[in-house]
Structures are given as structure tokens and as C-alpha cells.
Amino acid sequence: MFNKCCELLAKEKIKIAFFESASAGYLAYRFSLSSYSGDILIGSLVSYDLRVKENTLHISEELIEKYTAESMQVTVEMINKGKELLHADLYVACTGLLKKGGSETPEKPVGTFF
To answer: Domain CinA C-terminal spans what residues (predicted)?
Structure first.
């Protein structure tokens, strides 16, 4: 599936960039394995730690405190801020709850992915 996505992106001359948290670079890694990676992959930033979100992507502490680092709002902001760092046609960002002890709630249990 990844290679087919890469093939379609290359055919349309679409460049892609990733801003990953919970996936820790896995998506960019998988796209890099394709023979089309040199044609489509701009780069990736892994912001697994909050400090990377705040200091590199410049996501406000207030936004993170209001919604948590694992939220749709922060995931969207990762793209908005990431566009200043990497210039592509298509952006992918993801955050999520992988283990207990984070920001889980009954509405947002462990395993939730944005």
C-alpha cells in the first residue's frame, strides 16, 4: 500500500512532508523505502517529546495545556507550524495515546490516534 501511494504521488508530482509524534517517524520511514521516495519525500520531523513541539514547531504551551499534546487541535497546529519548516504539496501529521498515564479520558482512551 505504501509503495502504491508513493507511485501515485510521483505520477502527480506531489511532494510530501511528515510531522510525526506517536508514530515516531514510522510513516516517513515507510515512504522512504519506496523507489519513488527521492521524487516525493521532502522530509520529516519527529516531535515525540513536548519540547520539540514547543521549541521547534513553536506550538504554544497554552494550546497544548488546553487540548493536550494528543489532540486534533495540536495535530493540525503541527502542520500549520511545520509548513514554515518544510515546503511540500501534501502534509501529514499524527499524534496519539500509546500508553496509560497520559491524557487519556473515557472519550479519548489509550489507542486514540489523530
So the answer is: 4-113
Cell numbers describing residue 32: 522512504
The architecture in CATH of the region 2-94 reads Alpha-Beta Complex (3.90)
Task: Enumerate the β-bridge partners of residue 45.
Answer: 19
Contact in structure between 45 and 20 (CB atoms under 8 Å): yes
**Where do the structural domains in the chain lie, given as residue ranges?**
2-94
| pTM, 2 dp | 0.92
Enumerate residues 6+ apart whose C-beta is below 8 A from 108. 68, 70, 71, 97
